[in-house]
Target: 4-diphosphocytidyl-2-C-methyl-D-erythritol kinase
Amino acid sequence: MTLGKTLTVRAPAKINLHLGVGAPREDGFHPLTSVYQAVGVYDDLTVEDGDSWSVDVTVSDWMDRSHVPLDGDNIVDRAAALLAGHHGLAVSGSVHIDKAIPVAGGMAGGSADAAAALVALDRLWEANTSDDDLLALAAQLGSDVPFALVGGTALGTGRGEVVEPVTDTGTWWWVLVPSPIGLSTPEIYRHFDRLFPDAPAVPPMPEPLLAALEAGDPHALAAALHNDLQPAALDLRPDLAKLIAAGESAGALRGVVTGSGPTCVFLCESADQARETAAELRAAHDVVLVTTGAVAGAHPVSYV
Ligand code: C5P
Model:
């Protein structure tokens, strides 16, 4: 059955409620104990049937398009090649990405695009890839790509690519403040290694945070938010400490750097508190987003 000529898949940004980082493994990656949450900031990826292959991008007006690599080595090119190779198919179609997830922001925007590409091209090419195979291909593309497929709230282990859902009964209100200047993920990990030469082989499980999610208690969750990469991010970007203090004094329960930064996220008790916090932060920051989690992973939103 032909599904149609064009198909749009929406994939969410992630934030880290907990990011525990261990000492680097032999392959250079760091063992992680991560709790991810998918939040309502999305990239939409549209694929259209065609014999040749192309990828182009438009970005939200506050974002700099030049930061998105479009030189044939975009993560979407790699996703397409991997999926096609898995099935012995030729890569074909034209892809358009409509980005709202900050680029190089620590929110897994590239991973969201890769996950969306896998879902979209699987349908366009009628490849019927099993969920297990799709997750395995996602893991080859990047540590955060499997989570972008799964969404919700999930525990990530291994190098972040082994994901399993956790019980989450809350609706969480977040204020997100991206930064106009991105941070390099490898650089943050290298700085983490310098700061913490005695990091453990396996970072411990964040039990109080998992209990807060199960209880749906924002105050307990705020107290339990933690990111082992935050000291490295703050060292390289001291302005982020001021931003976190400003968000907390504007009313948020707690602010933290998310992932490898520089985006900072603020947990709020309610929609009103989130809007008030955002309004105050807008005095000094051009882009301040209000959103909720958890939301679904990469999913089709339209066929034409
Ligand atoms: O897996 P991904 O492509 O997202 O990783 C980007 C970079 O981040 C890696 O090349 C590595 O430098 C760093 N990284 C790491 N340990 C992880 C995940 C990422 O050191 N668990």
About this structure: The radius of gyration is 19 Å.
